[in-house]
Automatic annotation (TrEMBL):
PANTHER family hit by this protein: MITOCHONDRIAL METAL TRANSPORTER 1-RELATED (PTHR43840)
GO terms (BP aspect): intracellular zinc ion homeostasis
Subcellular location: Membrane
Transmembrane segments: 12-35, 47-65, 86-107, 119-137, 158-176, 182-200
Signal peptide interval: none
Species annotation: Rufibacter immobilis
A Gene Ontology cellular-component term: plasma membrane
Pfam families found in the cross-reference section: Cation_efflux (PF01545), ZT_dimer (PF16916)
Membrane topology annotation: Multi-pass membrane protein
GO MF annotation, one: ferrous iron transmembrane transporter activity
Primary residence: membrane
Protein name, per record: Cation transporter
Amino acid sequence: MPTHTKAVSSTRIMALMLGLALVLLSVKFGAYFLTNSNAILTDALESIINFVTGGVALYSVYLAAKPKDLDHPYGHGKIELISSGLEGALISLAGIAIMVKSVYNLLYPQPIQKMDLGILLTLVTGAVNYAAGRYLVRRGTQEHSLTIIANGKHLLSDAYSSLGLVIGLGCIYFTNILWLDSVVAIIFGSFITYTGYGIVRHSISGVMDEADLQLMDRIITVLNQRRRENWIDLHNLRVIKYGSQLHIDCHLTLPWYFNLQESHKEVEILQEIITQEMGDVVELFVHLDPCLPPASCRLCTKSDCRLREHEFVGRVEWTLDNVSENQKHSL
């Protein structure tokens, strides 16, 4: 799917999710006013965050999809890191607010009513959030969109919270022990706070361009599997994420006698392999190095080289450790 088409589709999806968040927000607050349950209020308060962050996410996806310009030569994808960080911070604040109110209600208990209806509404909204969250995480992973993934994980955490609340509310319903309502709310307020912290931590890592070791290992594995004889060495591999866009830098060692046209062809093949694996979100920058006989000959697998100055000793398997280093490999 072309990048522009993906962007339009993602924007529409986030707009639909914003509308869904508003509907679920109304249902959850309705359940709270019917029951006066502090635990149900925790679910309703988190839905406010769902709606606010849904709006931020919608704008973020729209802005990230804008093409590069003179002011933003790497695109606008970094906005997704800011968006997900804001979402995580708001989630944590909601969790803290839930715990504070729950402690208050432990000290000053309030009567609870119509618990059966509250349980039903919580279960329904939790199921909807779970389905929406699973879809967003899968879609965001396919499009390398941190905003969509963060929004999906938020909905999943909301769904898990709802399930826990249903269990807790069920205990309250059958035992009539009212203080359990606040205890359940404190437990899931803590869970919500921790979820928000995880999202903030991930977004900060992106802003600081922290290496995504799992992503790099995936790329290295593919290059090892489809390695060509002409690719004598690969090193100084770096991957930087700008929203859904991936910027990959590396040094590729080729036979020193290759002309410009031959070298360019090898770079095109490298680009094609990475694009097939990662999709059309990759911008590749390759620095070409000439081989240095006889040291390079020892690890060169090129069988038809007429200028070899040393016998082949062994192939160097590319790994996360040796490909990340800024130096040629040797035997």
